[in-house]
């Protein structure tokens, strides 16, 4: 049973509201001593503030000159303030000229004129439970807007961040359409609790657990988990904000240790209603081919003559294809005086570059906001998206070993074999654990259908000017069914056929109440937040299986009618998981004269995942900022427009652990049995399989951050510099227990640490801007230095290697003094005169055994970077993006399976191993021979477009036609398909790092697209 947290009662907010009300009255009295007293205020003045282009300005300061009362505009540029007809309003916003308006009615409309070019430092940026101008920020926060997203086939939101934000690394677990993506912010901070940030979509924190059903192993391994973020239509996204340091992320407490990504979808904007149609057609091919031996090279290599089968086949060409993809998206947006609306419908159809793989997604979205009552006192927002995803997969399980992988079968296949025999049937290789890859594809089916709905309603009530109560109710519901079939076949993988149906029903319910209060006293400005959050997660998985059914094509497929033939069985037990999170949070932002800034926050999280003695964790943060450019000694320095120094410290948590691990677990077993009766029948006894630990608590990450924001030379050069030091403490580990414990291993918070520290930079420049030509250019980069400290064990192994004779061999080690996930293997020295591999004898005992293994660092690149450029000349636009990394390594497990010994066993090999002169008798051995640099630089995206203005047609505003290419070229010494890859090869839950095992390759893609606005 999980521990039930008492539900929050709304009445607890009443004392908080009373405190704010009293404070408001007290502050109001303070104004009368500094301003003339007018007659009693009896009017509520409402208005709207926009820029010269009609776009709403959020955060503009509106002050009644005669009384000093001040409010700020909301995200729609609206405000409401108490004043008399005849009084004067002062409206100001950084970067715009101050405007004075005489009040002549209860409705005011103000348009501010820019006094200088807008820069990134003046943008309004989302933060947890609110927004701030970037010039007011004290934490490390980066934001991308829709215009920063690269055009292309970006299935999920994480792809949009690739190379755009310093310190954010995006690595594919697989190039398969819809497959998972690994996102890490500022290094790797956990051994077994994951490094994925918290994603918050329109105010709903998502669960990082899979939302699509995962099939049991039908003999070919478990295929890669699907991406839980692939349900969003990327065309619907307005902005992505990354909270990197603890000051910014601590407001999310127990889930903020890996950073937080805030995703905001589009809304209607002021102006004429807009109807938009986006479409593209894409053509994809494998990013590169591995350099294997051709049929002629194979024959002349001195192989056993029986291995020459008379054919000539490039097996990579047989399984890879030129894939065609398409996308259609229509959207409608509109804003009125009281609200705004956005609706969209889209359909994506993407074929994978490997035969039989595909991804199809249909999404619908509705975002609406409306105001009610006097002067928009109540605002109600609705965000709703629904997606239907249909995927087909291939047999490429990451844990299947060398005999359950489609791609490894194709790479190992003898090039002198033919696809078909003389009868037109698939050639039977007649080999154990090695099959014709095309035949394997023909007898395997894997189909996943996932329907997901994400929606929330947010209501904001203005209690008093500056004081708002917000209510947020959200639901995330997913239903998924996966049907996996291995039809009767001639292999030794389930030869009589096996079918598995997996069903997953998961939901996430969110309830939040919070108050915000904005107050200005002369040059003192306060923004106060206090609230409560309750979130419940539940997931139920069930399984059904059939074995020994009729041949493919004979009768009804078990997917359609599982009871038609065969033996019904349960592939694995069903599961039901439920947990809850109850939180209280608060934050105070203060600034004096927009020059000195202070932010403090605290979140208390209570989770059912943790022990009875540690149900609640407390996560504080504090940050300060100083706008140096506003000091008198810099006011006359003409080349400095903005200069701001920031510093922060805070703690966040990581609660990504298995449910119920704090509780004891038992089973009945013969090994613990006893003879109770004289008949000598053994009675099963009770065995403890998990030792309880009521003291288990969160992993805690403490982070210090120092940053500098700048804008120079009339805003021609702008950016930021950051230094961070991020330390994970109290890691949750499953390690050997102390003597007298009822189990050999126990879950506990160890004394170890993982330290990540480094520098980040981002520079941007509006190099040219005139009537005909605009050129923006930016570059970002980040370093990371990672080290493990104070672990109570000699080492923790992970990264299971696959291959013949390599069962139980691991590549990763977590060890004190070394980088997380360093590599542990033999040191390859070369080849002797007989072609035999030479390994370093570390202990000098004259033999090579596991005691001679050496630690190599490391999987984590020391430096990552991105380069982005956008140019517009008249109606042409041109953009490109580069990404890259240095200082990391990869274990090329694919190459290990293509070792020289394959030539002695009727299999193919990488050409470089044959050319090295190595003997065919060398047995596969994990060594530094297969450890390669993962350094690369890649032209990840390039785009050329032309916009046709359609002024002559009243119903058509513009047409933008473009051509685009993704992954056009990569410069790297890595011999595998892609150096930006990380196959999940974890051991006992300890995450693996830097292993490439027959991963579904990335694609090179060319796109023709159009955006039409009506």
TrEMBL record:
PROSITE patterns the record matches: TONB_DEPENDENT_REC_3
Occurrences of domain TonB-dependent receptor plug (ranges): 134-260
Keyword match Membrane: yes
InterPro entries from the UniProt entry: Beta-barrel_TonB, Beta-barrel_TonB_sf, CarboxyPept-like_regulatory, Plug_dom, Plug_dom_sf, TonB-dep_OMP_SusC/RagA, TonB-dep_OMP_SusC/RagA_CS, TonB-dep_rcpt-like
Membrane topology, record value: Multi-pass membrane protein
SUPFAM superfamilies: Carboxypeptidase regulatory domain-like (SSF49464), Porins (SSF56935)
Cellular localization per UniProt: Cell outer membrane
Boundaries of every TonB-dependent receptor-like beta-barrel domain copy: 419-968
Pfam family, one: TonB_dep_Rec_b-barrel
GO cellular component: cell outer membrane
Signal sequence, start to end: 1-28
Family of the protein in this entry: Belongs to the TonB-dependent receptor family.
Protein name: SusC/RagA family TonB-linked outer membrane protein
Taxonomic source organism: Chryseobacterium panacisoli
